[in-house]
Amino acid sequence: MPRYSYDRLTALDNSFLLLEKPHAYMHVASTGIYQMGPLETAEGGVDIELIRRGVHGILHRIPRYRQKLAWIPIERQPVWVDDDRFNLNYHLRHASLPRPGDEEQLKRLSARIMAQRLDRTRPLWEMWIIEGLEGDRFALISKVHHCMIDGVSGVDLLTVLMNTSPDAEIPEAPPFVPRPEPSGFELLRNEVGRRIRLPLGAARDLRDLVNEARDARQELLSRFRAMAETVGSTLRSASSTPLNQPVGPHRRFDWVSMEIKEIKELRRTLGGSLNDVVLTITTGAVRRFLQQRQVDPAKLDFRVLAPVSVRTEDQSGKLGNRVSAWILPLPVGEPDPLEQLKAISRRTAELKSSKQAVGAEVLTQVAEWTPATLLSLGARNATRLLPFNLVVTNIPGPQVPLYLMGAKMEQIYPYVPLADNLGLGIALFSYDGALAWGFNADYELLPDLDQFVQAIRTSFQALREAAGVVSAAPRRRKPARSGKASRANGGSAPS
Questions:
Q1: 487 vs 152, 252, 275, 450, CA distance in Å?
Q2: Which residue did the predictor score with more confidence, 359 or 166?
Q3: Coil, strand, or helix at residue 290?
Q4: How far apart are CA 267 and CA 281, in angstroms?
Q5: 80-85 long-range contacts, Cβ below 8 Å, gap at least 24?
Q6: What are phi and psi of 248, to 5 degrees?
């Protein structure tokens, strides 16, 4: 038995490290808004110490939160090792809005915090408690590097950090005893051994695939066909648009919330899936936004990347990435929202039958047999040929209220990172009857992010009117009692 311990990152997890650039950091994030409740101190602030005790009490359930990166010499493959200098106070941070702070101020602060790089010498996460929010509320901004979690595991993490009952007790934390870190020589020796065993591993994976299939030949042909289609879709560049220019280091963050029941009503009335409805709303917004920029959408091949979870039941609750993706065109040249929905529904049905997501999963498995140096080369070239214009990720969340040490979470707004030449990312998260949209944008490319958010609202209303359902405005918070709205609706000012 070795005296040391470490976990090797998968090729997919590693890809989010390789894709990171000085101006495009690959962490996922969220801004949650909470009622103060029992966390309010006598002075009217947030009981930071109680939150610290609560987080400390559950860290043993998420070991990755007390691990840092190390690298195998020569190969430069990253691994997870226990951080023997872990300090919770570094990761749990505290800031305040000028009282009474409104949500526009919170958006600007969220954008600034999310634009900052995580320290790679420490565990790759931060949690910011933001007090001073009007209406006896506070916010919690969470940042976790994408190499640690995907959307679904992020939801699992949320349920670990919070409770479905406001009366849950703070657990006692067992002592943290870091496991010894291997030396560079030990890491290199083990990697050499792994490389020797790779052909056997590949053969075993192929054998398992054949054994699991009812019709082995048909299944293999289907997967290789899917893989070929996936490769083909990534080798064709999408049209260049104002959204697809080199991004800078600063961000804008904005959000809007809708009732899930209204989205489901559209689905029942018009057909398709809930995600088809979401993509239709996005299509209408993109069309309006491009027209505002004097771009003719009818001349564009505009494509969206939609992540698809491939997480199995036995992988539930585990961190790391188990995700594939679809690349599909958005009919931005079509003015009729009903025709937009029909086109999107047809294409998603085709993608399901073609198993494009399975093809991407196969490519991910192949990447496990590929040296890290080649993966690094591939990552550097990945953003040069842009096969899509926009990322839209939709993550299902819990439909019951959640509590942080007794404080009820009102809403949570997700954040998806930007890669180079992707000036806008859209993340959606469903929680307690609401569908929250989070918009992450490059500060310079989208000074008018508020116009795009308004276009989302307009597109939603247009689809409802076309469907003949009762019109209702998206959820809005009560107007701020004080403070000025941001001219850019949530943009972070460069500092």
A1: 34, 12, 31, 9
A2: 166
A3: helix
A4: 12
A5: 80/6, 80/7, 80/8, 80/9, 81/5, 81/6, 81/179, 81/181, 81/182, 82/5, 82/178, 82/179, 82/181, 83/122, 83/123, 83/178, 84/178, 84/181
A6: -100, -170
| pLDDT bracket for residue 204 (50, 70, 90) | low
Average pLDDT over residues 64-68: 93
- Burial class of residue 483 (count of CB atoms within 10 Å of its CB; 0-12, 13-18, 19+): middle
Q: Which two tokens mark 282? A: 């996005």
The span from the CA of 381 to the CA of 225, in Å, is 24
CA atoms in the 13 A half-sphere facing the CB of 187:
23
- Fold classification of 232-399+413-467 (topology level): Chloramphenicol Acetyltransferase (3.30.559)
pTM (two decimals): 0.83
- Distance between CA atoms of residues 442 and 452, nearest Å: 13
Query: What pLDDT digit, counting tens, does each position of 220-267 carry?
Result: 444 444 444 544 444 568 899 999 999 999 999 999 999 999 999 999
Neighbours of 383 (CB within 10 A): 16
pLDDT score for 106: 98
- Please give the Cα distance from 193 to 249 (Å, whole number): 41
Burial 349-375 (b: 16+ CB within 10 A, else e): eebeebbbbbbbbbbbbebbeeebeeb
Q: Which amino acid is at 46?
A: V
